[in-house]
């Protein structure tokens, strides 16, 4: 058993022994009512639908990578009294289901990715991500030496150069039945970072509303109305980002880890490579060498690092490959990017700053 699995098992045992999450059946419903979300951007989307009668708690602290997060008993106390739990899904935060089972919690769990049709192939399972054992990672690295170097150095935006997956993003920014409804399926449909596309975030609100309606049917129409209002606001946000990034279509970049596939696809950018091809797994020396070589040849653009990513690794790659660094943030939850719109505007601004120079240099 890997270290992370042993730590999670110990935490679950502590919580289960203390009955830490399950509220007694006779306890009155709190006011405001409690909902829980695993990450900050999801929590903000949930709060928009929930309205003023609910408090939405975030389990994973800001600045912590969800891919390596190990819940402590203090984190799990946030589940006390929860009437609904929201997970990003697609293997991103499967540990939450284990925690709830250990707590004997009866709170229903809403999987946002599943509501969008994302992650049905379970590409981001624990075995491939943060919970892989050292032996598993070593075997994977050996395979990488023979088969994956070219993916790190010359990865063409996961097979989606600008315009490769359907219409240009200027059409139908958000909406049921629109031209981009297919973005949650096919090649893109296994990546769990759906919230980095405002289009997909808008679409998930309807499912969140139905989750609340199931818990509180008396106010079902109010949840649905807030979901429609929120979707309209996110459609406007999407149009704003489309306009800002339109001059940068086709620009290439390196990410700290593969989080930006939906963002890049939506706005016509190319995630050419990642320092961590699999989130939570350190790149092999050969992968890093291939990345540095490609960067020195001038084919990678700019490196975008993240607050949740070790800064030393990003600086080393940037220095060796001759890449400039720009900070982006897939999680937020801190002042200046605490709400979902703030987070996405922060990232749009960062991509504009980081890629504008590269765009001017392209023929």
What structural keywords apply?
Rossmann fold; 44% helix; globular
Describe the 3D structure.
With 363 residues, the chain is α/β, with parallel strands linked by helices. The chain has a domain at 134-194 and 242-361: Nitrogenase molybdenum iron protein domain (Rossmann fold, 3-Layer(aba) Sandwich). Helices cover 44% and strands 11% of the residues. It has helices at residues 3-18, 40-50, 73-76, 95-103, 112-115, 134-147, 149-154, 198-215, 220-245, 261-267, 285-296, 311-321, 340-361; strands at residues 33-37, 54-58, 82-87, 109-111, 252-257, 270-276, 302-305, 325-327. Strand 5 (252-257), helix 10 and strand 6 form a beta-alpha-beta unit. It is globular.
Number of strands: 8
Tell me the series of helices and strands, N- to C-terminal: HEHEHEHEHHHHHEHEHEHEH
Q: What is the residue-mean pLDDT, rounded to a whole number?
A: 75
Radius of gyration: 21 Å
**Under the CATH scheme, which architecture of the domain at 134-194 and 242-361 would be assigned?**
3-Layer(aba) Sandwich
**Uncertain residue ranges:** 1-6, 12-19, 23-28, 122-187, 359-363
Given the helix and strand composition, which structural class is it?
alpha/beta
Taking strands numbered 1, 2, ... along the chain, how are they ordered across the largest sheet? 2-1-3-4
The fourth-level CATH homologous superfamily of the domain at 134-194 and 242-361 is: Nitrogenase molybdenum iron protein domain
Largest sheet properties: 4 strands, parallel
CATH class of the domain at 134-194 and 242-361: Alpha Beta
Enumerate how many helices there are, as a single number. 13
Helix content: 40-55%
């Amino acid at each position: 058993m890997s270290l992370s699995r042993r730590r999670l098992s110990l935490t679950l045992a502590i919580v289960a022994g203390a009955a830490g999450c399950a509220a007694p059946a006779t306890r009155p419903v709190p006011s405001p009512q409690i909902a829980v979300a695993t990450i900050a951007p999801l929590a903000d989307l949930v709060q928009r639908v929930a309205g003023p009668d609910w408090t939405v708690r975030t389990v994973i602290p800001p600045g912590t990578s969800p891919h390596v997060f190990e819940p402590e008993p203090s984190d799990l106390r946030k589940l006390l009294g929860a009437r609904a739990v929201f997970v990003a899904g697609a293997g991103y935060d499967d540990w939450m289901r284990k925690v709830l089972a250990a707590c004997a919690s009866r709170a229903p769990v809403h999987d946002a990715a599943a509501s969008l049709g994302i992650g049905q192939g379970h590409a981001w399972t624990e075995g491939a991500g943060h919970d892989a054992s050292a032996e598993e990672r070593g075997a994977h690295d050996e395979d990488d030496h023979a088969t994956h170097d070219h993916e790190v150095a010359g990865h063409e935006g996961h097979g989606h150069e600008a315009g490769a997956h359907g219409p240009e993003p200027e059409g139908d920014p958000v909406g049921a039945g629109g031209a981009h409804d297919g973005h949650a399926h096919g090649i893109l449909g296994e990546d769990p970072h759906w919230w980095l596309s405002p289009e997909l975030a808008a679409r998930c609100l309807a499912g969140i509303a139905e989750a609340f309606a199931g818990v509180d049917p008396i106010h079902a129409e109010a949840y649905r109305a807030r979901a429609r209002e929120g979707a309209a606001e996110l459609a406007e946000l999407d149009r704003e980002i489309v306009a800002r990034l339109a001059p940068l279509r086709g620009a290439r970049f390196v990410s700290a880890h593969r989080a930006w596939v939906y963002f890049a696809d939506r706005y016509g950018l190319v995630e050419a490579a990642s320092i961590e091809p699999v989130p939570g797994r350190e790149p092999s020396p050969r992968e890093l060498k291939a990345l540095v070589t490609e960067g020195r040849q001038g084919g990678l653009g700019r490196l975008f690092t993240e607050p949740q990513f070790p800064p030393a690794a990003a600086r080393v790659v940037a220095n060796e490959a001759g890449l400039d660094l720009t900070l982006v943030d897939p999680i937020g939850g801190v002042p200046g990017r605490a709400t979902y719109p703030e987070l996405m505007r922060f990232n749009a601004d960062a991509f504009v700053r980081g890629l504008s120079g590269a765009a001017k240099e392209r023929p």
